[in-house]
Description:
CATH architecture of the domain at 41-117: Orthogonal Bundle
Helix content: 40-55%
Shape: extended
Low-confidence stretches: 12-29
Distance between the termini: 72 Å
Mean pLDDT: 80
Strand order of the largest sheet: 1-2
Amino acid sequence: MNLCGKIIFFMFISVILSCTKDKGKLMSDEDKPSNTLVCDTNTYTYNADVKAIIDTKCIGCHASTSPYGSLASYTVIKNKALVGSLLSSLKGEGYSLMPPTGKLSDCEIQGIESWITAGAPNN
C-alpha cells in the first residue's frame, strides 16, 4: 500500500471510530438521545384522542353516508367499541386491518383499548 493509500485508510478508520465512540467509550443506551414520546394510555378520552384519530385516519372512508359503515357519531363508535369490532379492526383480528393506508401506532391502539376498557365514555 502506498503512502496515499495508507493516509486514506487511516482517515477512514478515524472517521468510523469517531462515529461509534464518545470520549473513548461506546455510547450506552442512556447516552443516546431519545426522540420517542412516552405513551400514556391512561389519559385517553373520546373527545381529545379517540375522535381525533378517527377524524384523521378513518372518517375519509367511514363518513355518515359511507357504504363501508359510518364512524361519524359517538354512539356508533361506542357500539362498535363495546361489541369488539372497532378494536378487532384496528388490530386486524378477524376483520380487515384498518385503516388500509397503514396500521395505527401501538400507542394509539393501546390508548383506544384503554378507553374501551373504561367503558368507552363520552368524555
